[in-house]
Amino acid sequence: MYQLSRYNKYIRYKNKFLYFNALTQCNFLMTSEEHDKIQEQLKDPITFALQYPTVFAKFKSWGFIIESDVSEFDVIRFRHFSELFSPASYHMVINICDQMLLDGKMEHFVLVLGRFIKNMIKNRPKPICLEWILGDAVSYKEITVYTNKYIKQLCSKNEIPLYSQADLTDAELDNNMVAAYKNIDLKNFRLRVLIAQKSREEHIGIDDLPKLNWLIEKIHTILQYSDGTLLIDAVFQTEIPVEKTVAFFNRICTELRNRIQVVLVLHGKTTIQQYHHAVKEVSGLGFNLQPIAWKNMTISPENITITTDGNVFFDRYVEYDETRKIGKLNPEGIIEWDEVKKAFYYGRIWFDNEQCKECPYLYIMRDFCKDYVFHYGNRLVVNCPMKNGITHGDQVLVGMYETKHFFNQP
Predict the structure, then answer these.
(1) Whole-angstrom Cα distance, residue 318 to residue 47?
(2) φ, ψ (nearest 5 deg) of residue 344
(3) What is the dihedral of CA 3, 4, 5, 9, to 10 degrees?
């Protein structure tokens, strides 16, 4: 017996239909005529298998049709725990604390961090992704340069691949600071940009020229004084006309655009036609578009945030306070876990609830949703970013299809 996958999506795309299974990530286009015929066959999988066995076998291999006794949520659960305890690489976020600079304890932290990484390499050698979250202190430059250089030497000596990235969202930059990163081959930078109708807190108003000018200058500084690339997470959190979205990107220097990767997140009420138009226009300006779920940090004891006072947290965007701390880095470079909190954060699946189980975008969107849920609300209350209008799953699927097939071809 057979059944249709819960994760099938058939999205009207231009004058065709985009078929996308969000679990296998298999996707392709069909004409309206083909779509009508296939939908008729999918109503009765057994008859489909008997009448068109070759076509049926294709749809089964692509994941659109599954055995009746298969639980796709169990598949997701299994993959979640596989990634939880055996991720392909280490991912460490280093969040620098101002107080450490004032107390003069930074050298001690660098030493302890070095011991921690040595232990990692010795126990389970595999690639390391090191991400710095930098604020506005000038001293961050020296700290980042020194530590990154030391870690790079450790990895090079042990033939361990190292990917380093600096999140400069909250950093006040100067030319010398960016140029210093060039000397240690720190070439990957990230900015999280929140755009709204009006400026408020961390949001920049789409018509707030002083703040927009400041942001554009910051982007130019990063790329003009380094030879690296910049990932821009551009989140438009209110309904902003596509023309204004495109106009924002059009202000960036033309010569720098091929070194910029853009994750474009439009408001959830944006139609697929509007989203497609925005992506096409932004890509046409020379930027490299990336899918929304690209390079999000999965939950794992090997994917952690370490603040420079040695405290360990489970995720990049949590509030850094004692209630969310899950461990402490001791002087020997070993994490002393709070076993109760560790079991709470890693032992349960945050998306194991009826709302998420019914979501056809769950497998692709879980890391994006996780960041939103943990950052903007109580993790015990599922704040769905799609229901709250932050984004729309169809945008993600269309974006993944177009990124793969059109926008970033050499």
Answers:
(1) 51
(2) -65, -45
(3) -170
